[in-house]
Amino acid sequence: xxxxxxxxxxxxxxxxxxxxxxxxxxxxxxxxxxxxxxxxxxxxxxxxxxxxxxxxxxxxxxxxxxxxxxxxxxxxxxxxxxxxxxxxxxxxxxxxxxxxxxxxxxxxxxxxxxxxxxxxxxxxxxxxxxxxxxxxxxxxxxxxxxxxxxxxxxxxxxxxxxxxxxxxxxxxxxxxxxxxxxxxxxxxxxxxxxxxxxxxxxxxxxxxxxxxxxxxxxxxxxxxxxxxxxxxxxxxxxxxxxxxxxxxxxxxxxxxxxxxxxxxxxxxxxxxxxxxxxxxxxxxxxxxxxxxxxxxxxxxxxxxxxxxxxxxxxxxxxxxxxxxxxxxxxxxxxxxxxxxxxxxxxxxxxxxxxxxx
Length: 357
Hints:
By secondary structure, the protein is an alpha+beta fold. It has helices at residues 3-25, 27-34, 94-97, 103-130, 168-174, 208-220, 236-248, 262-266, 290-293; strands spanning 38-41, 46-51, 76-81, 84-93, 197-200, 231-235, 276-277, 280-285, 299-302, 308-319, 323-324, 333-345, 353-356.
């Protein structure tokens, strides 16, 4: 069997087996998958449905009034957006392959190269969703992002990030749209609200947990069933500080709320890594530095029931057949392509939130 035939047979299987790891290694995608929030679809566009809380007015019936007002207001808003479409080559240079001493070495080289290409593509997707700090190649600008500090998207509806680091009033005043919808704070009817929850804190390690609890309580009041906000994503450095704050909460001023005994010390039960508090499981993310996110002390607080990952079923990390590019372009390599057509959306803005310093 030639190497070209081997690549055609094995590479698609290698990529297919690596896709579950992509979903399971990221805490948000893992919950999206378990809750059925990964939508495998098709067609030329993504159609996201926003449900409003209005519809019609209730009429009080008494002896003098038996007329019912049948005025109907819009209860849903359908937002069509474009797919993010990407193609990533897997390049197997003949020069490197010819240096291999055996067929086993060549097979291992194909596998390692394929895994490297897949991993770099997965990393590009994750980095875009959480921080959206890159431009140009590998930036995945057509894909939606959580980071409302960035307005560098390239597709209709996904130009701006989902989670703004502003109060609802400031979000409405700034008029920065999301999914082509104007952010609104409805303080009259309380029906047409369209913003994410937000609270400023005085620093992770100081009073961030109080801000987190307030955001969760507010966001969960808009959620219909479910567990509400269950995931917190923050930088590694901030994660360490948050663990310290959780261990000392509700301490402060140098007083620790956790007391250890001699038995705790002997059995190694001191300062275990804490990653859950207030019903939220916190996870460190290596991309989310202050410089990348655009603000300090940022924590994305996510309710998976308000998030969707759309994948075009025909291009869900699909691998093409390999071609000998020596015959077509003069490049001495076998080349295949991974294709992805996907989109990330947060139609449940009210159910999700963020905190920052």
